Amino acid sequence: MPKVKSAKWRRQAPPEGWEEIKPTLTEFDQKMRDAENESSAGKRRVEATWSVMRVHHQRSRYIFDLYYSRELITQQLYEYCLKNGHGDRNLIAKWKKQGFEKLCCLQCIQPRDTNYGTTCICRVPKANLEEGRTVECIHCGCRGCASSD
Q1: DSSP states along the chain
Q2: Among candidates 35, 103, 120, which has minimal Cα distance to 64?
Q3: pTM (2 decimals)?
Q4: Which residue ranges make up each domain of the chain?
Q5: Could you read off the pLDDT of 104-146 as tens digits, one per residue?
Q6: For residue 36, with 0-12 CB atoms within 10 Å meaning exposed, 13-18 middle and 19 or more buried, which class applies?
Q7: Are 62 and 32 in contact (CB under 8 A)?
């Protein structure tokens, strides 16, 4: 017989400072809903999810900047935001590492998703590409997220 969950698993009250960032996160939620409901008519198959990926990146970057760059929120509020799905914990962990400061999505660094077992073309520095060549990631539509750019 499965265990019966107690009242501990219920959602916690938001920590101090939540009311200051709540309007921005609500705006990101609305953008995400709009991106999810956006029509994919006239787009290539890979372009259908790009708008969702962009909003996901912006929302995670907002939380990252508040905690690490500007130091405007507490650790409790940061953990609360990540726990409740307002940011991507794994993507933020990569941003803290050297060489991944501008990473657009986690799919771009997974070698199994590419033809030659390397990273995505958007991770190549623009100085190493042919002049005048536009690069566009097939996963998220990024036009270059190498840290050396």
Answers
A1: -PPPP-GGGSPPPP-TTHHHHHHHHHHHHHHHHHHHHS--TTS-GGGGGHHHHHHHHHHHHHHHIIIIIS--S-HHHHHHHHHTTSS-HHHHHHHTSTT-TT---GGGG-GGGSSSSS--GGGS-GGGSPTT-----TTT--S---TT-
A2: 103
A3: 0.85
A4: 15-96, 100-149
A5: 998 888 888 777 888 888 888 888 878 877 778 888 888 888 8
A6: exposed
A7: no
